């Protein structure tokens, strides 16, 4: 069975990604969650991850705080989420939904890097890592332990946009924008990655029909998921009404990591633009265009009905028990 690590900035879709991972226990063992920043700062994201795990009765899954600021920041420079991130996910990161604190504490601050390095060396090709926020922790892992890129561990990230506009600027996606230098390093260091970007995540949308199904369960988990996700749907209906629901960004990354056949991919040696008006753009690296070894697979197609059915079945079954 595969071992799974989620590297999250736990906002709304990250929470849904945790639920999907827990609902996929027959396919993969969630061995840990690491905390990055983006939707929220690391302490709040870690708090949310612990609380979600507690809600679903999984206090056995450790949560490790990661790097809490971009590579370009001074070590003591503060980081805070943008006004846009707060608008999308709410001040508490989970759409204002009420979720009690977990009774346990996270692991040692900054311990995510060592945890991921140890897991990659221990499990090798049996390990799947899914980063869904800033790529800083993953870049730090690969800088400190270059052997991780050759360990066989798979990295399936949610971020970027290759064939569609960005959601922060016309060319930049939110997770990449948090730390373009880290994402550029991840793509160019030789690590094998799969990019699940807006090209496919905006094709998958959850509507109020789905949240009504959760609310009808009459469980604490069902009510929480419905309250949280309805907030997310409201944001999307106001800002991207053409989607008719909320994008399932992070859950799709987890689903594709566990079953790559859900997506159709294109091999591209990527880079991230670091300067000027296109800072944060994910695009083919001109220096490696003729290199036949493509280190990144970019998802450009997705089995929408298959994914949505799987997502609803697994998350609903999980929520019905809690």
TrEMBL record:
CDD domains: nuc_hydro_CaPnhB. Pfam families: IU_nuc_hydro (PF01156). It is an enzyme of class 3 (hydrolase). One of its GO terms (molecular function) is purine nucleosidase activity. GO terms for cellular component: cytosol. GO terms for biological process: purine nucleoside catabolic process. Keywords: Glycosidase, Hydrolase. It comes from the Bacteria. Its EC number is 3.2.2.3. This is Inosine-uridine preferring nucleoside hydrolase. It comes from Bifidobacterium scardovii.
């Amino acid at each position: 069975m595969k071992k799974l690590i989620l590297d999250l900035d736990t906002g709304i879709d990250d929470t849904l990604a945790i639920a999907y991972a827990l609902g996929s226990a027959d396919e993969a063992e969630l061995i840990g969650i690491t905390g990055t920043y983006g939707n929220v700062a690391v302490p709040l994201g870690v708090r949310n991850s612990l609380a979600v795990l507690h809600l679903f009765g999984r206090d056995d899954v450790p949560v490790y705080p990661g790097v809490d600021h971009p590579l370009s920041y001074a070590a003591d420079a503060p980081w805070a989420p943008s006004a846009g991130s707060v608008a999308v996910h709410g001040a508490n990161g989970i759409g204002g939904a009420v979720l009690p604190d977990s009774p346990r504490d996270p692991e040692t601050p900054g311990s995510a890097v060592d945890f991921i390095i140890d897991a990659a060396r221990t499990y090798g090709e049996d390990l799947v890592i899914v980063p869904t926020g800033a790529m800083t922790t993953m870049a730090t892992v690969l800088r400190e332990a270059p052997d991780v890129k050759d360990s066989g561990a798979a990295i399936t990230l949610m971020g970027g946009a290759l064939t569609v506009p960005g959601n922060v600027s016309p060319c930049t996606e939110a997770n990449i924008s948090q730390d373009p230098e880290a994402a550029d390093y991840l793509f160019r260091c030789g690590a094998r990655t799969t990019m699940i970007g807006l090209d496919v995540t905006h094709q998958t949308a959850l509507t109020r029909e789905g949240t009504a199904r959760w609310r009808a369960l009459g469980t604490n988990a069902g009510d929480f998921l419905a309250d949280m996700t309805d907030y997310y749907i409201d944001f999307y209906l106001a800002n991207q009404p053409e989607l008719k629901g909320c994008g399932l960004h992070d859950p799709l990354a987890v689903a594709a990591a566990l079953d790559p056949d859900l997506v159709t991919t294109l091999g591209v040696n990527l880079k991230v633009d670091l300067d000027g008006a296109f800072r944060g753009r994910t695009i083919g690296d001109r220096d490696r265009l003729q290199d036949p070894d493509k280190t990144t697979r970019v998802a450009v197609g997705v089995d929408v009905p298959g994914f949505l059915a799987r997502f609803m079945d697994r998350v609903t079954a999980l929520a019905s028990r809690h």
